[in-house]
Design a protein that fits this description.
Helix 7 links the parallel strand 8 and strand 9. An 8-stranded parallel β-sheet has the order 1-9-8-6-5-4-3-2. It is of the alpha/beta class.
């Protein structure tokens, strides 16, 4: 496995090589701050910050809150500084807020940008204008090449088993193809919920694990109590893959689909033309109780604070590394 010397400065020196995925509705400043204080990159979708019509941009207030709280933490704890944070931008053409949100992020000098649903040169240029690093999420090698050609600095490989919008390719195949030509920052998404799976992602060639679903059941997450309980009570067999709810294929909790009165095994499909981010939402209101999750949730056995979840993964990661070193006769 490589060290982090090849990475941009903003991606170095983390407690764990881990990025917390931006979760629709769920990722709010309290969650992001807790993730960063725990030593991993926290993130949130810009579209989560929705204000009443005519009110000042909530995204502006969120970025101020996050930045000021992390600055206070770093001053009080110089020996264990917080990790940087990322903002996820949905760059689909229907996102009417994109231009405004880009301007706000540039003004706040957001250090890390995660872009989704389309690679756009002007978005990458906006990030680079304030020193930001751009990671673009992709589900195959073709999209990966397009993203880098349009100026992204790195990639998030979204493999089979990931929560929310997910691809269908094995993580082994996806990382292998990308690494055959790309040597820059690479995160892997897809059922990473333990320290062992995080170490496996690194061994395969990824620089980071991209972890989302386990954070839904944390105390700081802005998720319905029933959603958190369903994460705790579910496993890989309780995940349904469908395009119905957003027009993009993704993974959802079977129980939430059944609760909405639908048959999870006989869902109609929808195409990408049905995506509409004009109102700042990635789901029609009719589907607001359809809950996304990835296949790795079987290890989530209870609700917990973010710090406890990250501690658990860190302990497993170290133990798995030590075990491998012993297996190969090396010093940990």
């Amino acid at each position: 496995m490589r060290d982090d010397s090849h990475l941009p400065q903003a991606l170095r020196g983390l407690r764990l090589p881990m990025i917390a995925a931006p979760l629709f509705i769920i990722s709010v400043p309290e969650l992001v701050i807790a993730q960063c204080k725990a030593g991993i990159i926290g993130s949130f979708p810009a579209l989560n910050a929705r204000e009443p019509e005519g009110a000042p941009p909530l995204l502006d207030a969120w970025l101020t809150q996050i930045t000021e709280e992390l600055d206070r933490h770093n001053q009080a704890h110089p020996d264990r500084p917080a990790a940087p944070f990322a903002v996820n931008q949905i760059v689909h053409r229907s996102n009417a807020r994109l231009k405004r949100d880009l301007e706000i992020c540039v003004r706040h000098k957001v250090p890390l940008w995660i872009t989704s649903l389309g690679a756009r040169v002007e978005v990458n240029e906006a990030a680079h204008s304030c020193g930001g690093v751009v990671l673009h999420d992709v589900i195959n090698d073709t999209f990966a090449r397009k993203a880098i050609a349009k100026g992204a600095d790195g990639l998030v490989a979204v493999a089979a088993g990931a929560g929310g919008h997910a691809g269908q390719q094995s993580p082994f195949a996806l990382v292998q193809e990308i690494r055959s030509w790309f040597d820059g920052p690479l995160a892997l998404s897809g059922a990473i919920a333990t320290g062992q799976s995080l170490l496996a992602a690194r061994a395969m060639g990824a620089d980071f694990g991209y972890v989302g679903s386990p954070f839904i059941a944390t105390d700081e997450a802005n998720a319905d109590a029933g959603y958190k309980d369903m994460i705790v009570d579910s496993g890989a067999e309780d995940i349904v893959y469908s395009s119905l709810f957003t027009g993009v294929w993704g993974n959802y909790l079977r129980g939430s689909v059944e609760a909405a009165g639908m048959d999870p095994d006989n869902l109609p499909t929808a195409d990408a033309a049905s995506m509409d981010f004009a109102s700042g939402s990635s789901k029609p209101k009719a589907w607001k109780t359809i809950w996304g999750a990835g296949q790795g949730i079987g290890v989530v056995k209870a609700r917990a604070p973010v710090a406890a979840l990250v501690d658990r993964i860190a302990e497993e990661y170290a133990a798995a590394g030590d075990a491998l070193c012993r297996t190969f006769g090396e010093t940990p």
